[in-house]
Specification:
By secondary structure, the protein is mainly alpha-helical. The chain folds into three domains: 1-131; 156-283, no CATH class; 285-501, no CATH class. It contains 23 helices and two strands. A two-stranded antiparallel ribbon has the order 1-2. The longest helix is centred in the middle third of the chain and has 33 residues, at 162-194. The radius of gyration is 22 Å and the shape is globular.
Length: 501
């Protein structure tokens, strides 16, 4: 347990963002609401920096732990902390939300105060998911995040079917939450049974205690598949992916950036599904690898058939997260570090591409290649940064995509050679569909007046893409900075998975 002079930094972090949302509700001016949202995120970033500076990367244990009794009759606690697996998601998540706030500065014209208040609530709930060490607390943050997303999609969506998209997403996530809840309850009941205590006296839901629990095979089987099913819906993995293309087309582009940038389902598999049922995870490694390969190839082939940039990016995201699942299934150091690296990359690369697609939509009213062409002539900065981010998504050396994909492919070849070859084919297809759509949308003659007269990136937009590009290049040229943070925790994760003390 690590303390920072006894100061509850994580609790303050979790309170800062809903407090900002409340303050936005108290002001009448939309301009002030935007600045309150940005200031609240900046304060959150400062608190996260304090955490990073005090974090011991060599340790695989949870640090900055804060604990208080929440529902004592059920032994449910307010228990938060971070380790090397979760801590880097905090700054990357805050940076992503700051980018979304800046990108939405003038585009959210309807009910702007509500829009920015919902963004702040969603940011706080997302950070709560990453720091929760009690599975009931985690589930609370997980489910509460659906409410702001439902309203963001249904009220500020771009397409005529935005309400359908919001309902589809919400219902699928609620359905995915049912097996998660049952899985966590089974773990709590199993603890009571293991010590011969009655319920509710013997219930335990804190993560460290559940990690030490030795489950009988039949019960571990149920827990593993319940948790895996719940997290696969959110990942999204094939065949639970259908909500993402719909939300990407019908919802706000900024919200699509959040959904492609934050792969909470994949994080949940790493954090809960595998280490809480390690024997079954090893036994069914072929299932995880198979789901990964199907996602890689199916997502890539879907992306090849698209003519709309938003649809292509959504399908590309399905393909890329398939590679993450394959890397997790390797159960070796290169695989888990590569998977975490890639999940962090999503917050910059996938989300950054969506934000720039949003900038393009604001200027042209379309993201379909038929309505574009010649964008480089009037918007060279946007075209240049879009290409840089696209190269990062392809894993070109010098960008952050390269070390992540290299580690994941290397781990796949070590553990699932055939699947590794299929993943390599998916990477090649990925380069093909991106370069094809990029050529159609950004090169060629300018055939539409709206493109000829379009303004290039504004200063605020340029700030967002430059900030993301800086970390794309920094993490690509110096990946050890990321790997050093995750090394201690991934070693501990592997020891848990392989049943070592």
């Amino acid at each position: 347990m690590t303390e920072l002079s006894g100061f509850p930094v994580l609790s303050l972090l979790l309170l800062t963002l809903p407090a900002s949302a409340l303050l936005i509700g108290l002001v009448a001016d939309a301009g002030k609401a935007r600045w309150i949202a940005l200031t609240g995120s900046a304060l959150a970033l400062l608190l996260v920096i304090v955490l990073l500076l005090g974090f011991d990367a060599a340790s695989g244990e949870f640090q900055f732990v804060e604990q208080a009794s929440w529902i004592p009759t059920l032994n449910i606690q307010y228990l938060v902390g971070v380790d090397g697996i979760s801590i880097l998601f905090l700054p990357f998540t805050v940076l992503l939300f700051m980018g979304v706030i800046l990108a939405s500065w003038n585009s959210a014209r309807t009910l702007p105060r509500l829009y920015f208040a919902l963004l702040m609530l969603l940011q706080g709930l997302t950070l709560g998911i990453f720091v929760s060490m009690d599975v009931v607390l985690f589930f609370l943050f997980w489910e509460l995040s659906l409410a702001p997303l439902y309203f963001l999609i249904s009220l500020w969506g771009l397409g005529p079917k935005r309400r359908y998209a919001a309902v589809k997403y919400t219902l699928m996530m609620l359905a995915g939450g049912v097996p998660l809840l049952f899985g966590f309850l089974l773990l709590g009941f199993a603890h009571a049974d293991s010590i011969g205590a009655t319920i509710p006296a013997g219930l335990v839901f804190d993560y460290p205690s559940l990690l030490a629990l030795k489950l009988p095979h039949h019960l571990e089987t149920m827990v593993f598949f319940l948790l895996l099913l719940g997290f696969l819906v959110k990942t999204p993995a094939v065949p639970f992916h259908t909500w993402l293309p719909v939300v990407s087309m019908e919802g706000p582009v900024a919200v699509a950036a959040l959904m492609t940038g934050l792969k909470l389902g994949a994080y949940g598999i790493i954090r809960f599904a595998v280490p809480l049922a390690p024997n079954l995870a090893r036994e069914f490694h072929w299932l995880l690898a198979g789901l990964g390969v199907v996602g890689i190839l199916y997502g890539a082939l879907l992306a090849v058939a698209q003519t709309n940039l938003r649809q292509m990016l959504a399908c590309s995201s399905i393909s890329h997260v398939g590679l993450v699942l394959l890397a997790i299934a390797s159960f070796n150091e290169a695989g888990i570090q590569g998977a975490l690296f890639q999940l962090l990359n999503f917050t910059l690369v996938a989300a950054g591409l969506f934000l720039m697609t949003g900038f393009l939509y604001q200027r042209t009213g379309s993201t379909d290649c038929i309505s574009l062409g010649g964008v480089t002539a009037s918007m060279p900065r946007l075209a240049g940064f879009f290409l840089l981010f696209g190269l990062a998504s392809m894993g070109v050396p010098g960008t952050n995509g390269f070390p992540a994909e290299f580690l994941m492919l290397m781990s796949a070849f070590q553990s699932h050679t055939g699947a590794g070859l299929a993943a390599l084919a998916g990477v090649v297809i990925g380069a093909g569909y991106f370069l094809r759509l990029y050529r159609l949308a950004f090169f060629g003659p300018v055939e539409h007046k709206v493109i000829r007269d379009a303004m290039d990136l504004r200063q605020r937009e340029l700030l967002v893409v430059c900030l993301f590009a800086f970390f794309i290049l920094l993490n690509g040229l110096y990946p050890q900075g990321i790997l050093d943070f995750t090394h201690g925790a991934t070693d501990r994760w592997l020891s848990l998975v392989h049943g070592q003390p």
